[in-house]
Amino acid sequence: MNKSDIQAQAIARAQQFVPRGVSSGHRVGWTQVFDRTAGSYVWDMEGNRYIDYLNAWGPIVLGHCDERVSEAVSRAIRTCDVTGVGPQLYEADVAEIVCGAMPSADKVAFCSSGTDATMHAAHIARAATGRRKLLKFHGSYHGWNDQLAVGSSRVDFSPDAPLNTPNGAGLHPGSVADVVVVEWNDHAGLKAAFAEFGPELAAAFSEPYVHSYGCVPAEPGFLELLRDLCTAEGTILVFDEVKTGFRAALGGYQSVIGVTPDLTAFGKAIANGFSVAGIAGIESLMGHLGAYDGKKATLDGTYNASPYGMAASLATLRVLGDDETIPHLYAMGERLRAGLREAIAAAGVPACVAGLGSEYVVYFREQLPKNFKEAMDVDGDLFARYHAGLLSRGVLEPSFPTGDRRMNAAVTAEDIDYTIEAATASLAEL
Ligand code: PMP
Predict the structure, then answer these.
(1) Pocket residues for ligand 1 (CB within 6 Å)?
(2) Could you list the residue range(s) of the whole structural domain that residue 417 is in?
(3) Would 23 be classed as within a structural domain?
(4) Residue among 54, 152, 238, 268 whose CB has most ligand 1 atoms within 8 A, to mutate
């Protein structure tokens, strides 16, 4: 078998047994299959090496197969696998670090995915307020639970199209009816939504810095307005820090911008690749978690706070809490964004660069977008050719134009400079 057949055959074999050959949406359409990772690099089955700017869509923050995490997890595997009785190994240690770092965290409960975390946050908010409706922002993805999988489909952008279209088929119709969707950075629209629905809103969900369609910050005053409206109406403010948590700062992006939510959903970077997520919140709200009495919101899960996940989280958070790791991520992010901006200017291509710390994106449009509709209005053809150029030069990025990219902390200045060269050459070909 020649080398390139190996990957085609692996994909064909997966398609025989798995719908579309993949078990998560954005994995579809690649011709590469990756079978080795280390530090800032991944290798495909043909042995080609790529600098990784996908990083498993967020979780890999320290580096692939980080020794400190692998060592901690293998120790847990050898000494205590899972019990499911009482507090789990390292659970309190991880919770203590999160509570110490995250402004909104008096208590923390663990689950296994960001989807679980936002679902539990919705349950807590409804249990606490006795209200039904949820508010969210157009384009922000909060996972696939029925409560929130609304208003981020990329189907219809005509001016009159409703914002709260379901993201996929099979969602409970009542979920769609109960979600109020507002355009991101639309101050007047947000006020109007609260004026109309305020007393019915159990919670408002927001990414404090949007990564669902690249990198789009809140305009000055927007999150403060959201905070004030929630406080005035008794609506629970939930920050979805699944992407920003532990990566933008140990205490989440809330610790950077100084707007404190009532609840926070987190996941991804907390465990450098192990499936750990959770909900953090103020004491009075977290007290609404209980089990099976019909009055409390339930939190149950075989794998919640598993010793493997907690061991990985503890090791990851200890490193992220040092004086070097997050500053290194910010320095590498700045270096890359500056280099990309120069490369774009030199090539004269209509594109712009956005980002925060280790996260970045190149939008193929003249100006930075301020909401979902603008972010989707990019030159897809230029993007596809740029993406192919990077890939052929050993730089791996998400394959759709609004996917946020990120580096892990194993990345070196040489990796970044190589990436800028690859981008310069790819842009010159457009
Ligand atoms: N919220 C945000 C902001 C996300 O980016 C994601 C995943 N990309 C989720 C929630 C869902 O997390 P998970 O994939 O772990 O269910």
Answers:
(1) 57, 113-115, 118, 141-143, 207, 212, 240, 242-243, 267, 277
(2) 32-65+323-428
(3) no
(4) 268
Torsion angle of C-alpha atoms 286, 291, 293, 295, degrees rounded to 10:
30
332 and 310 share one domain: no
Q: Is the predicted ipTM greater than 0.90, yes or no?
A: yes
Atom of ligand 1 nearest to the CA of 114: 12
Please give the positions annotated as active site: 141, 240, 268
* Tokens at 272, concatenated: 């450098």
HEC-encoded secondary structure of 144-179: CCCCCCECCCCCCCCCCCCCCCECCCCCCHHHHHCE
207 contact partners, CB below 8 Å, separation of at least 6:
137, 140, 239, 240, 241, 243, 244
Segment 314-327 mean pLDDT: 98
For residues 117 and 207, state if they share a domain.
Answer: yes
**CATH number of the CATH domain containing 264:** 3.40.640.10
In terms of domains, do 224 and 108 share one? yes
129 falls within a domain: yes
In a domain, 187, yes or no: yes
**pTM for this one?**
0.97
Nearest to 358 by CA among 206, 248, 255: 248
Q: What is the pLDDT of residues 281-309, one digit of tens each?
A: 999 999 999 877 888 999 999 999 999 99
- Overall number of domains in the chain: 2
Among 26, 115, 275, 304, say which to mutate for ligand 1: greatest number of ligand atoms within 8 Å of CB: 115
Under the banding of pLDDT at 50, 70 and 90, the label for residue 24 is very high
User: Which of 320, 354, 382 represents a domain boundary (last residue)?
Assistant: 320
pLDDT(155) > 70: no
